[in-house]
Amino acid sequence: MDQNKIKEAVRLFLEGIGEDPEREGLLDTPDRVARMCEEIYGGLGCNAEEHLSKQFSAEGSEMVLEKDITFYSTCEHHLLPFYGKVHIAYIPDGKVVGLSKLARTVEVYARRPQIQEQLTTQIAEALWQNLKPKGVMVMIEAEHMCMTMRGIKKPGSKTVTYAKRGCFENDPEKQKEFMEMIRI
Ligand code: ZN
């Protein structure tokens, strides 16, 4: 990440909106934003494979569900936050991963300019490709600041997206089981 470019851009941005980047309260802002970017866009250049490559053998093929994984991401259209919960289920085919690795996978794709639909697909695809399970289903429920603090201003409205792979795609029973388990 190019910290100097970010700092320069923030200074220009502040000037652009009619602020004075030299006033006391804003003096350190470019520096702060640049450091913050390391964190909130830190998923760029990361790969979920590094988290999902450590796998364990497991018998059985019951659904594994990790629900209510809190995430924060940035909408690539407005550079405003969107945030909420990710629910991930998969049906192993002999291999499982540590549960924390599912949250790590979410971080890799959430910490970059993003749209919710793509975030959902990327998480599902990462599991599908790396773990080769019998099926994967991912659901994201999120609130978008670009919908609540600007534009149509509908606080509390949630956007819900799904991605399904493998046996979840054509099996309404499996999808129903997933929905029931995340509502418990
Ligand atoms: Zn937006």
Could you explain how this protein is built, in words?
The chain is an alpha+beta fold. The chain has two domains: 3-40, GTP Cyclohydrolase I, Chain A, domain 1, CATH 1.10.286.10; 56-183, GTP cyclohydrolase I, C-terminal domain/NADPH-dependent 7-cyano-7-deazaguanine reductase, N-terminal domain (GTP Cyclohydrolase I, domain 2). It has helices at residues 3-16, 29-40, 49-52, 99-110, 116-131, 145-148, 172-183; strands at residues 55-57, 64-75, 81-91, 95-97, 113-114, 135-144, 159-166. The strands form two sheets. It has a five-stranded mixed β-sheet, sandwiched between helices. Strands 1-4 form a two-stranded antiparallel ribbon. The chain is elongated and about 65 Å long. The structure holds zinc ion (ZN). The site of zinc ion has 6 residues, from loops.
